[in-house]
Amino acid sequence: MSHTLIQVDAFTAVPFHGNPAAVCLLDHDMPDCWMQDVAAEMNLSETAFLILENGCYRLRWFTPAVEVDLCGHATLASAHVLWEQSLVPPESAIRFLTRSGELGARMDGGLIWLDMPARVTGAARLSPALREALGEKPVWEGVADHDLFVELGTAGEVRRCTPDIKALAASLDHGLIVTAKGDKPGLDFVSRYFAPGVGIDEDPVTGSAHCALAPYWAERNGKPRMTAFQASRRGGDLEVHVQSDRVLIGGQAVTVLRGELLEW
Hints:
By secondary structure, this protein is an alpha+beta fold. Helices cover about 20% and strands about 40% of the residues. The chain has two domains: about 1-115 and about 250-260, Diaminopimelate Epimerase, Chain A, domain 1, CATH 3.10.310.10; about 120-245, Diaminopimelate Epimerase, Chain A, domain 1, CATH 3.10.310. It has a 17-stranded mixed sheet that branches. A hairpin with a 2-residue loop joins β7 (about 100-110) and β8 (about 110-115). α3 (about 130-135) runs antiparallel to α5. The chain is globular.
């Protein structure tokens, strides 16, 4: 018995950029411990597991260490795989059943658009230990659900940010979103995402973080539609559109590997 396993670079059209995710297509349920072991073996920020269920796809996401409630780039990768493998017609939208409720994906204008829940940010002070670990002086500090959220003064500071990862891991339960206003024409904001608490020192491109970033910058810029760049080493391009309590996140994806995962 085996399962199709495909690796996709998400939020990019260029191989070896964006954020890699593994997508495993299942035709029957597998134990949670098996899925966690597969994710640890893949050693990517996320591995997605898909199984067809009543006309929708049940979707779960695992880091190498834990299962997570929401992941954007592996959802985009999953939609890309379903269309590319002709499991869903290219003109048809996809419904995913997840721990964060029902999510949607559709193709429009050459981009895959994800329909994701908006995340509200609220002001909150970083601890002295976290502020020291960050190594930069925020102009705004807050939280977005389980993630901490800071705005820095310039995009250059975001790009240069080199936090103390070991110190972050000791003081941070989940993730840290770092952002600033864009520094190029047509670029509304930049960001980085660090999550050593769940086994990811820095995530290359984070769709779920943009569920918080998009409403935050829409309020400050007065623009519901924006262009974003996640300034990791690999880098990733995103389009966002805030619609009430939802965020549409658009991006491209490219397949880099196809294989067969044996069921031991």
